[in-house]
Amino acid sequence: MPKSVGLSKDKNWWRQAAIYQIYPRSFADSNGDGIGDLKGVTSRISYLKSLSLDAVWLSPFYPSALADGGYDVADYRDVDPRLGTLADFDELLAELHKVGIRIFVDIVPNHSSNLHVWFKEAIEAKPGSKARNRYIFRDGKGEKGELPPTDWVSHFAPSAWTHESVMGGKGNQWYMHWFAPEQPDFNWDNPEVEKEFLKTLKFWADRGVDGFRIDVAHALKKDLSEPLRSLPVFETLEERGNKGKGILADRDELFKIYKQWRKLFNQYDPPRVAVAEAFVHPERLPLYASTKTLGQCFDFRFIETPFEAAAYKESVQDALELALKNKSSCTWTLSNHDQIRHATKMGLNSAVDRRSWMLSDGTSHPLDAAAGTQNALAATLFILALPGSTYMYQGEELGLHEVTDIPASQIQDPQYLRNNKMDKGRDGCRVPLPWQKSGSSFGFGTGGAHLPQPSWFADYSVAAEENDPNSALSIYRIALGLRKSLITEEKIKWHKTGNPSVLHFSRPNGWHCITNFRGESYPMPKGEILISSHPLTNGKIPAGTTVWLKK
Ligand code: NOJ
Ligand code: CA
Fold first, then answer.
1. Exposure of 350 by Cβ count < 10 A (0-12 exposed, 13-18 middle, 19+ buried)?
2. What is the pLDDT of residues 320-350, one digit of tens each?
């Protein structure tokens, strides 16, 4: 184990932190059952330490039937036996804290699993009962109540309503679920639900958890006043606008809940932190990121921003302006467990329709994997130099690509199964990590992997990259280490480059970042070169490369 350094005392540690998302089932398997687990994460603490991280965020590890990769939680205050025990969690937290890494857990407050004890009670109970009132049960329409109560749509199924009989209910009601039918939505108008989640947050905060990632933070409150309004398609963020009166999301009443959560967080020293996953109109983001509510909010704009100078500059400017309004810090992210890996996106011609490409098992258009990884590293160094915190996703430090050819019979994601197989879903970025160049699951564990790993994973394994100074892993390690010592005031200044494909900005302490997006190599400005995401060509910055300088 690396030596103990403990946690920093800085209450603002989160403002410019490097946070690494672990998808526990796919990180490291300690007992050879093909499923990653908490002991697996603990066994890799030296690796996490080598990335100079401030925190890790664990996607759900709670008991779950995995109808949605663990985002269907059956018990919010326990560990899935396949992933370990609460004692294993405590051990992981203690070992992370010893090496100065904090820990976020994922809170999924919009919906539970249908296997949650409350939902099991609700299904058994009568209409109008206390048990049903924790969820959203309604009578159906039509002469015999045979039609769903409204036209609301769900993310993973055609309708947002399922008849109770599907879950074994004996009555004639329907229940609401914004995601899969196995993910019934809570009724947040019921104070019992509020109380229950305060208890869950306190449970983890008391155990020493430092932060919380809040799943679909915008959806807890709905307009449930009768008659329920019609909403046959998802509203766009523009349609929902900035009024705080969405039917199913982004309602003003939400902030009463988050203010209560904030009060709880502030009872700890240092105060617990939270980051909201909220898909809302940009003008509404400050409400979620306010210091009076959750404190920080994901900004997903770089997931969609094309790798081009003008688009990158605009994204940065918008995000910085927003952060000023928030009084929070910016959050930068290129990938997570819901997205096609960004190395792959950046290796595809931007005109390619990614969906049809995925559906063709990645064969319908050429992927330039090396260019993708190179651009991805340039993008990473660019965002790591910006003010604010960076949320990274496991495997991106290896320059890992999306696995596009998982056989249909092995796909687990409800996005695929429930969308008439029109969308390959998110399993391609959730394939267990390769640690070794060979072995049954490339060192992930001794008993195979719960999603199939392709043979090319060998070249992206930790072992393959560890001793190569130009590998993605080496660049991440050096850059993240440097970043720790370079972090300074949350400001940037743009410098003229005279080249529309090159961006150059600096931070107040003389830390400069120059990215050449495409075209001719760019002459190196004066200064001490700290790192380059790709080897220089005759001292110049080639296309798809970011350089950090100190002046
Ligand atoms: C967002 C999570 O990131 C995603 O994986 C999940 O499917 C939905 N929320 C529903 O919980
Ligand atoms: Ca295991």
1. exposed
2. 998 888 889 999 999 999 999 999 999 987 7
Atom number of ligand 1 nearest to Cα 71: 11
Which residue, judged by its Cα, is nearest atom 10 of ligand 1? 71
The number of beta carbons lying within 10 Å of the beta carbon of residue 172 is 14
- pLDDT, tens digit, 9 for 90 and up, residues 406-454: 998 999 998 887 776 667 889 999 999 999 999 989 999 999 999 999 9
Note whether 170 and 78 are same-domain residues: no
Sheet strand arrangement including 493-495: 493-495, 502-506, 511-516, 545-550, 528-532
* CA–CA separation, 469 and 24 (whole Å): 28
Give the neighbor-by-neighbor strand order of the sheet with 173-176.
137-139, 173-176, 161-163
Residue 172 scores a pLDDT above 80: yes
- Ligand 1: does its nearest atom lie under 6 Å from the Cβ of 22? no
Global pTM? 0.97
Question: Where do the DSSP E strands lie in 459-550?
Answer: 493-495, 502-506, 511-516, 528-532, 545-550
Same-domain status, 66 and 144:
no
The CATH number covering residue 203 comes to 3.20.20.80
156 Cα nearest atom in ligand 1: 7
Please tell me whether residues 327 and 417 are part of one structural domain: yes
CA distance 551 to 526: 8
- Beta-bridge partners for 391: 19, 333
As a whole number of angstroms, the distance between CA 73 and CA 435 comes to 29
The CA 155 to ligand 1 mean position distance, Å, reads 10
User: Is the distance from CB of 137 to CB of 169 less than 8 angstroms?
Assistant: no
Centre of ligand 1 from the C-alpha of residue 338, in Å: 7
CATH of the domain at 125: 3.90.400.10
**Domain carrying residue 515:** 491-550
Closest CA to 218 of 293, 302, 277: 277
Q: Are 449 and 443 in contact (CB under 8 A)?
A: no
